[in-house]
Batch of 3 targets.
Target 1
Amino acid sequence: MTKTVIESPAELYDLIGKTLGPSPSMEITQERINQFADATGDHQWIHIDAEKAANGPFGATIAHGYLTMSLAAKFMPEIIEVRGIAMGVNYGTEKTRFPSPVTVGSKLSATGTVVSVEEASGGIKMILRIVMQAEGAEKPACIVDAISVYFPA
């Protein structure tokens, strides 16, 4: 694991274009997939029916795309820590893609590239392109441009 630690939001400007990470890996379990299905009401068989999914297009159950995307919130603080802030807020996302399915048992990790940094509403807004990759997969599982605003202390 490689986490970048900066002492103030102003230092984010120095990171534009730099790739950060990788994060530690985490296993995608069927329990996590089922909990996400229950939370969202998305109980499609490709996610929760292991027997049917074994004979389906992916050979196993797969994580919901939005489950994979939501893991950006887990991986981001493992990639970067911004100190000297009163608070940081999730401002949203841009350009999310799911190039490859995440089968149950996959181990995901993430890297992040700082796309842009600018002043915004009394804080500093950063767009971090988070690339989540399943171990051994040819293509990333998810690429999401996560937008955060950090308010200096």
Note: The chain has one domain: 4-27+64-152.
Target 2
Amino acid sequence: MAIVSKKVQSHKVQSIDNTKEFFSTSDDFIFTDYRGLTVEQITDLRKQLRAKGAQYKVIKNNFARLAFEQLSAPEGVSTYLTGPTAIAIAPKDANEVAKILVDFSKEASVLQVKGGLFGKDLYDAKQIEAFSKLPSRLELISMLMSVINGPVRNLTMALNDIPSRLVRTVKAVADKKAESA
């Protein structure tokens, strides 16, 4: 629990407002313990996340907790804001961000996924790992389109097969007559 000061410091209020504004750009957050990562590893991780449109920031736990409270986040978010915490902010596809973090934590065992906040739902580390194994939004759309196109494709192939069978039959009859003559 944070110690509440009687004197309000304007730079801290400004930092909390900036954090709140930064958090308002997304509804999906994944909390990690980054302790032990080298600068090269963090740089590589940030590069991978940036490719998916996500950001990976280290923010003071008190500032993050207060910003989440002001954004009406669930109560349990503060349980993930203990110790050294870096937050991956996923404005687009949180599934791909979770996949990157889980895969990276397998490569660099010092990175630990603590949990996540998706919309108003809290996920623990095991749920984040299961979430990362699901297909991404684009993969699901392509699967759906393939299923929708399947019957139409089969119908066109069946309709095209009728005239081609007729042509092959006529050709076979013509070849047979040519042989007998």
Note: Residues 10-134 form a domain with the Alpha-Beta Plaits fold (CATH 3.30.70.1730).
Target 3
Amino acid sequence: MTPIHVMIILLLLSTAGYYLGRRRALAVAERTGGPKVLHSRPVYYGALTALWCAVPALFIFSFWVVCESTVITDMVLSKLPESIQSLPADRLNLVMNDIKNLVNGNIVSGEENADLQAAADYYQYLRSLSQGALFVLVAVICIGAVSILQNRIRPELRARNHVERVVYYMLIACSVLAIFTTIGIVLSVLYESIRFFKIIPVQDFLFGLKWSPQTAIRADQVGSSGAFGAIPVFIGTLLVSAIAMIVAVPVGLMSAIYLSEYANRKFRAYAKPLLEILAGIPTVVYGFFAALVVAPVIRGSGALIGLDISSESAMAAGLVMGVMIIPFVSSLSDDVINAVPQSIRDGALSLGSTQSETIRHIVLPAALPGIVGGVLLAVSRAIGETMIVVMAAGLSANLTLNPLKTVTTVTVQIVTLLVGDQEFDSPKTLAAFALGLLLFVVTLILNVIALYVVRKYREQYE
């Protein structure tokens, strides 16, 4: 029985515990004067029973699944011949991988080994034994918890208080988990970035004008020492993002104004979902569209007027990225414009303003802080895009502001640097973390500015 099956059984037992607890509460209430004598509603007694059934078993299940592989691996290794146990750690890991491949039915490279086959059979036996024991333990805990709580259900039991306290602690745990996840991401990127800056000076990275991270893979290999100036990469990022925002902001804002101020309800009910379909299209599809349709059109149009346009250009990537971000700008702007009270519009119209004047002089100024905040968030989205740039803008880090030339962005370089057989502690690989840290700081600053603008200039309406 696999862990998935155990989880399904745990869910079924918890559901059964809910109905048993609720029925027990109703039975107790009938004997003592009706539901009014209960401290809490019967559903809370059912929920408390389900929590008693699920939470302890879930803790045991999680601990078991985390530790199972390590314990079984140690037990299998202890049964191997001494000649295998004495191998170096890396060779021993390869042996263990061969054993796991045999367990999973995969073909192992090399000749068949009786010791490995015996170890694989022992591994399979231990795993089956572990999964059976886990099932029995989870079932016993669930049934025991339900039985204990069934006997504790009384009219004076504060089931609602207990359930709400458990939910309260669960919410705290989720919040703490989110916070520590963010801290862990930042610290991991920061640690690797510090290792990079010990090799490459910070000033060379921040102010260097050439990006060529190719280095020798081995000490005895002749290769480039690399150039890690980040300015060409960030210029390319800003250029592609600027083109995208030139497309997305006017189109998204105008569509939001039309949908919120001019369109009737029937048209809005169809147009808004259709517009937001653009946000659900995978970015790789946008990349294909940019590489196969937009880039050839731009190159062909330039050839007609004598312009030399690269097959991959910032213009192609920026235009398609702008189309992708249109629903982002439109949705945020539409929500902000709709938040402006109708009474303000009516007041402007009653004073003789036309609808367009009301929109230009009343609605948009009132909604401007939210619109600006949405645009800055859209900029953060554009800066973090990868797939479209990979397929439409290229990989060359050219220091140029010409949108018809090949450029690259920070996210593309991060992907490129982490692909291949380069050593993980080499400057080429560590440069990806430095770029990631710098990109994190830039997007964080943009988000902080957006929040500041929204909070400082947001109008308060009753």
Note: The beta strands are 211-212, 227-228.
